TrEMBL record:
Domain Response regulatory, chain residue ranges per copy: 1-115
Lineage of the species this protein comes from: Bacteria, Pseudomonadati, Pseudomonadota, Alphaproteobacteria, Sphingomonadales
UniProt source species: Sphingomonas panacis
Keyword Endoplasmic reticulum: no
GO BP: any one term: regulation of DNA-templated transcription
One Pfam family this sequence matches: Sigma54_activat
Domain of life: Bacteria
Residues annotated with 4-aspartylphosphate modification: D50
Protein name according to UniProt: Response regulator
InterPro entries: AAA+_ATPase, AAA_lid_NorR, CheY-like_superfamily, Homeodomain-like_sf, HTH_Fis, P-loop_NTPase, Sig_transdc_resp-reg_receiver, Sigma_54_int
Domain Sigma-54 factor interaction: 139-364
Keyword Transferase recorded: no
Gene3D superfamilies named in the record: 1.10.8.60, 3.40.50.2300, Homeodomain-like (1.10.10.60), P-loop containing nucleotide triphosphate hydrolases (3.40.50.300)
Amino acid sequence: MILLADDEPAFQRLTGAWLRGLGHQVEVAGDGDAARAAFAAKPADLVLLDLAMPPHHDPEAGLALIPAFTPAPVVVMTGHADHALALKAIEAGAWDFLAKPVDPDLLRVVVARALERARLAREVATLKAQAGGDEDMGLVGTSPAMAALRALIRRVAPTRLPALVLGPSGTGKELVARAIHAASPRATRPLVPIHCGAVPAELLESELFGHLKGSFTGATTDRPGLIETANGGTLFLDEIGEMPAAMQVKLLRFLADGSYQPVGARAPRMADVRIVAATHRDLPAAVAEGSFREDLFYRLKGIVLRTPSLDERASDVPLLSSMFLRRTSEGRASFTPDALDWVAERRWPGNVRELRAAVECAAALAIPGAAGLMVGAADLAFAVGDLPSEPASSVFKTLDEEVAALERRRILEALGRTGHNHTHTARELGLSRVGLLKKMDRMGLR
Ligand SMILES: Nc1ncnc2c1ncn2[C@@H]1O[C@H](COP(=O)(O)OP(=O)(O)OP(=O)(O)O)[C@@H](O)[C@H]1O
Ligand SMILES: [Mg+2]
């Protein structure tokens, strides 16, 4: 679709007819604001922009409009072969320019070329998204549960359907939302996240829909909402379960027909935004108890994607751990074999987020040894606080108990650093190997 922005009715009619005759769909706008609104409601593939339009007939104002049409190519039409202005327009991001009166044959060629470029840009974006393969997604894991999730992401991404990502805390819901956007034809447009629970209820409406100057105390200028920012792209509504009831109604309307009303605006506006929502809450239960609108729930759950808990994909734990260690140490640290056993055996109720924090913390605490930075089971156990460090009643500890606790901690730390090498640990602590093993037996560390 071509957006023709020009204020002269005769030019609109003739050029519009010529372009339609060539098989193009044409939408017409008579001034800058109308052009911007039309594009916001339905992004055109190409914009033909007259630089001198009402109300100011000022070419500079026309130039300032050009970025509003990204990523569509803009062909500017300048009054009387004004070359300096044409140059400025190209500098401002225009794709080409035409001098008025416009030569119809030149128009045909320029339009064809610009549309071809727009098509190529879309194709590159799609190919990029596909070629990224799996790495693309930032989602690590080879378990069947993850393979199924990836396959579903790939199927959902090209559609416009709203997607609802459900799953326990820390299982990668946000990564899934990003993966859907990245693999979609909208990948070159913005992905705009908002955490519905983190924005105070009374600000959420203006945050999402924007507001007009003077619509409430403190609204000193017009401000676009996140929906407008996300136009052509994806809006990620994180923690949708926390959305206040009053906003649920307004969101429902937007989902139903793409219209929304900025705070203080008289008329609704349109935006083309794909919605991906996520929550760790049990939404059907919230619906049943009446805290979440049923109609909104059904609108949102165009497609439901479930992120598996780490328990359901235990086979991914070593892979994830190694990846996090590599990332946090920039490839400088490695695990001792017992560390990988330890992570695989432990349960991770906080899921991937907890695992990641444990690995990063252990890597930060580990002390480099002769073999480089080795992260051992003891480092990890220490990092997650599985080791009884200081009992709460420490004030009442006897001297013997305190010495024993200190001894235990020194031994565990040294074991972690040496990767459970008993000889090195003993040497580091100034003990004989046999002496160390005896102590470890006594402490139940073997
Ligand atoms: N499959 C995965 N591969 C790599 N990293 C992951 C994966 N899943 C989760 N993570 C990492 O785990 C952490 C938590 O992920 P994320 O924030 O997406 O969780 P969430 O499901 O949105 O949790 P919450 O419900 O608490 O918001 C992030 O640091 C993320 O990068
Ligand atoms: Mg999250």
